[in-house]
């Protein structure tokens, strides 16, 4: 569906081949006359854009291999430069995708509120509110400074759009990070109780109660409200073990040609919310073959063998693509391609993103418990996670010589940190391993103000340039698209 929306916030930038893939019936707002049609509209209330390519390239998971697959959506973010287009996988594309999703949510909400029998639309209203909250949350996370109680009320946020646009170039204000968080929380808490999982044909592509609670756990963790983060994590996945990815059991039976499809299946219990969108990041294993990606050195740093703290070996399936310089975990489906028509040999590559997973719920809960001083609870979940990630271990029964303890975690950091600090650092290490290639590491870098150092390699493997991005560097926040100036916003971060 297409809408007359301010080009300042929502500018659909699609290649010609994208038209077929994301083709929508012309404006049919007047036809939203029953809950089923509103549900159809809500399928577009999730950002049809990917953050994985630019987020991963900006993180410390990426290094310069000296050569490799070339794409500006990989090279520019690695150099912390602006991608000079709005193509798929670019930051501008993701900005537009989020506001397009918000527009769909707002249109759905208007239909729900104006219906003669509003009670029949409660599930749709709930999904629209939570989806609107999620898109704004992703925008404020990437385009504004991290939430900090002491500075959130003064740091610029992002425009929070709550109604369908009816004029061209409507004027907006960025407000503050605190404003955006307050509105996200309002939408989330109002929408969550209204959700009805039974209303979805394919639940994994919608905000089920589990997915919405997982989102709430992430939101409150980022907001530093740790008690609520634990509360919502427990509600999202009450029983973690049967819902964790079976890396050291079932996944071991898959080859690299089968693993990606299984990893992103709707029937995989670990996948709480999936989203599919146009993307070349995953196609033909580009995420491994890109020049600025996981290098052998960084791979060895992340996937220590034998493991520190616990000992043993990781059960993650790793390999090389093309050459020994391209290591990676082949977990993202690399064959997704929509032909322009049944007889053509061209079309649109697309990919699937696991927006929320059981593993993230576990990590968010453990991190929040660490800050609450519930160290034993945090370590219990860490050990549960490791029981599904170490070779030769039966899930749920980690042997004593592999079990994490407070003493082992502190010793891992030479006893330089308190148990709370050491636990948080260790959880971040585990998150980095689990979500490699998926862009999630960048969010932790933002939250904790971690310094990123990128080297650039010339002829003969000689380092010709080093770029260090510290916690206060303005390049950490993505630049707002230039078109946003049309909405009256002049400060674009850069």
Question: Can you offer a commentary on this structure?
Answer:
- The protein is mainly α.
- The chain has one domain (16-487): Alpha Horseshoe (Serine Threonine Protein Phosphatase 5, Tetratricopeptide repeat), CATH 1.25.40.
- The protein is built from 17 helices and nine strands.
- Strands 2-7-6 form a three-stranded antiparallel β-sheet.
- The two termini are 33 Å apart.
Topology:
Elements: H1 16-21, H2 35-42, H3 52-58, E1 63-64, H4 72-78, H5 91-114, H6 122-143, H7 177-191, H8 209-222, H9 226-236, H10 259-263, E2 271-278, H11 286-289, E3 292-293, H12 296-302, E4 319-320, E5 327-328, E6 337-339, E7 347-357, H13 358-372, H14 375-386, H15 406-412, H16 419-434, H17 440-448, E8 452-457, E9 463-469
Antiparallel strand pairs: 1-3, 2-7, 4-5, 6-7, 8-9
Helix pairs in contact: 2-5, 3-4, 3-17, 5-6, 6-7, 8-9, 8-13, 9-13, 13-14, 13-16, 14-16, 15-16
Give a short overview.
The protein is mainly alpha-helical and 494 residues long. It has 17 helices and nine strands. It has helices spanning 16-21, 35-42, 52-58, 72-78, 91-114, 122-143, 177-191, 209-222, 226-236, 259-263, 286-289, 296-302, 358-372, 375-386, 406-412, 419-434, 440-448; strands at 63-64, 271-278, 292-293, 319-320, 327-328, 337-339, 347-357, 452-457, 463-469.
């Amino acid at each position: 569906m297409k809408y007359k929306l301010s080009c300042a916030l929502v500018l659909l930038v699609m290649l010609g081949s994208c038209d077929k893939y994301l083709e929508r019936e012309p404006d049919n707002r007047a036809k939203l006359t029953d809950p089923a049609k509103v549900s159809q509209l809500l399928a577009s209330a999730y950002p049809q854009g990917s953050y994985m390519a630019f987020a991963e390239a900006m993180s410390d998971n990426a290094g310069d291999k000296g050569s490799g697959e070339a794409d500006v959506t990989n090279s520019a973010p690695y150099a912390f430069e602006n991608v000079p287009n709005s193509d798929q996988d670019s930051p501008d594309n993701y900005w537009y995708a989020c506001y397009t999703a918000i527009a769909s949510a707002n249109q759905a909400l208007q239909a729900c509120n104006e219906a003669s029998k509003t009670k029949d639309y409660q599930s749709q209203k709930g999904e629209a509110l939570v989806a609107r909250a999620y898109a704004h949350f992703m925008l404020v996370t990437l385009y504004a400074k991290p939430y900090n109680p002491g500075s959130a009320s003064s740091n610029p946020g992002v425009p929070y759009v709550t109604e369908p646009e009816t004029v061209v170039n409507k004027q907006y204000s960025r407000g503050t990070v605190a404003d955006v968080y307050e509105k996200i929380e309002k939408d989330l808490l109002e929408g969550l109780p209204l959700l009805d999982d039974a209303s979805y044909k394919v639940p994994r592509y919608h905000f089920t109660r589990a997915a919405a609670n997982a989102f709430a756990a992430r939101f409150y963790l980022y907001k530093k409200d740790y008690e609520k983060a634990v509360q919502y994590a427990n509600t999202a996945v009450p029983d973690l073990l049967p819902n964790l990815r079976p890396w050291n059991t079932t996944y071991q039976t898959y080859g690299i040609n089968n693993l990606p499809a299984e990893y992103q299946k709707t029937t995989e219990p670990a996948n709480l919310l999936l989203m599919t969108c146009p993307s070349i990041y995953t196609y033909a294993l580009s995420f491994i073959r890109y020049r600025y990606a996981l290098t052998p050195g960084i791979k060895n740093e992340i996937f220590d063998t034998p493991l520190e703290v616990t000992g043993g070996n990781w059960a993650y399936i790793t390999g090389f693509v093309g050459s020994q310089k391209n290591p990676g975990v082949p977990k993202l489906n690399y064959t997704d391609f929509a032909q322009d028509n049944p007889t053509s040999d061209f079309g649109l590559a697309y990919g699937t993103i696991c927006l929320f997973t059981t593993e993230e719920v576990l990590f968010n809960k453990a991190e929040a418990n660490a800050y609450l001083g519930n160290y034993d609870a945090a370590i219990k979940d860490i050990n549960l996670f490791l029981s599904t990630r170490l070779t030769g271990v039966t899930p749920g029964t980690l042997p004593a010589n592999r079990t994490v303890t407070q003493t082992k975690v502190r010793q891992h950091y030479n006893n330089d940190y308190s148990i709370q600090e050491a636990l948080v650092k260790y959880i971040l290490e585990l998150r980095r391993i689990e979500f490699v290639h998926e862009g999630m590491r960048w969010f932790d870098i933002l939250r904790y103000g971690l310094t990123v150092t990128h080297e650039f390699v010339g002829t003969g493997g000689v380092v010709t340039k080093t770029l260090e991005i510290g916690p206060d560097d303005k390049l950490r926040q993505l630049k707002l698209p230039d078109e946003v100036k049309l909405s009256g916003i002049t400060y674009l971060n850069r």
